[in-house]
Amino acid sequence: MQSESGLLRWLNVPLVYNAFSAVVGANALRRRLIQNHVRAKPGDKVIDIGCGSALALQWLPGVQYLGLDINSDCIAFARRTHGARGTFVVGDVRSLRADSRFRDADIVMALGVLHHLDDREAGDCIQFAHDALKPNGRFVCHEACWIPNQGSVSKYIMGSDRGRNIRTEQQYRDLAGKVFSKIEARVDTKPMRIPYVTIVLECEK
Ligand SMILES: C[S@@+](CC[C@H](N)C(=O)[O-])C[C@H]1O[C@@H](n2cnc3c(N)ncnc32)[C@H](O)[C@@H]1O
Fold first, then answer.
1. Mean of the pLDDT values across residues 30-49?
2. Fewest C-beta atoms under 10 Å: which of 10, 71, 150, 188?
3. Whose CA is nearest to atom 16 of ligand 1?
4. Alpha helix (H) residue ranges in 12-108
5. 96: Cβ below 6 Å to ligand 1?
6. Closest Cα to atom 18, ligand 1: which residue?
7. What is the pLDDT of residue 3?
């Protein structure tokens, strides 16, 4: 579920979202995340769930990129920006479950997506990732994360996020653990220029 109130609505507009990402340091964070955790190799098949305008593509090597998002404006923006560097599909994990393009991936990623989804939708997303992976493929997801003794400023900023389902490390682990048995998680308490806490989970099939 996503909050669409007030100024936050503007973050649905790709240009506004991309500018906001640059200002708060989210682009530098994405670059580090892609280098250190996604670790794609040239030629890998990479599926990006909730790809938005496919910002991630600028830090990936020459991969076979397949992005999906429910926001058709984001997908149109991604097609205009990246052209033939990837395939960009409008839809969600339920409508695309039987689509044979979403198979045999080396890596599936979902960056900033699960906190927009309730537990049932997030479970479907993780199952979709598992089904789309080759044996030994990896699902990498990156999310906002609550921690004990959270600072009041980060609590306020994260509480204002459009995604209404930010979780604790244990809650993310429990969700992923229903589908994947090998999970590594890392919490970062200073990921950007603003007070915020994130978690990255690497799940192996
Ligand atoms: C915070 S943005 C992240 C976009 C992109 N992954 C990035 O790192 O820039 C979350 C994205 O998830 C998409 N989204 C939300 N719910 C979705 C769903 N059920 N299926 C597919 N995409 C979804 C939104 O449209 C939005 O583009």
1. 97
2. 10
3. 116
4. 14-24, 26-33, 72-82
5. no
6. 92
7. 54
Question: What are 110-159's pLDDT values in tens digits?
Answer: 999 999 999 999 999 999 999 999 999 999 999 999 999 999 999 998 88
Task: State which ligand 1 atom lies nearest to the alpha carbon of 55.
Answer: 9
CA 142 from centre of chain: 6
Q: For the whole model, what pTM was predicted?
A: 0.91
C-alpha span between 108 and 106 (Å, rounded): 7
Distance 144 CA to ligand 1 centre (A): 13
Closest residue by CA, ligand 1 atom 23 = 50
Residue 6 has pLDDT above 90, yes or no: no
Mean pLDDT for the stretch of residues 86-92: 97
* Torsion over CA: 19, 22, 27, 29 (sign): negative
Query: Residue 135 Cα, ligand 1 centroid: separation in angstroms?
Result: 26
> What architecture is domain 6-204?
3-Layer(aba) Sandwich (3.40)
How many whole angstroms separate alpha carbon 173 and alpha carbon 22? 29
pLDDT of residue 163: 85
187: part of which helix (H) or strand (E)? Answer: strand 182-188
Rounded to whole angstroms, the Cα distance separating 1 from 31 reads 27
What confidence score (pLDDT) does residue 23 get? 77
> Distances in Å between the alpha carbon of 71 and those of 11, 29, 88, 90, 128?
12, 23, 11, 7, 18
Look at ligand 1, atom 12, and give the residue with the nearest C-alpha: 50
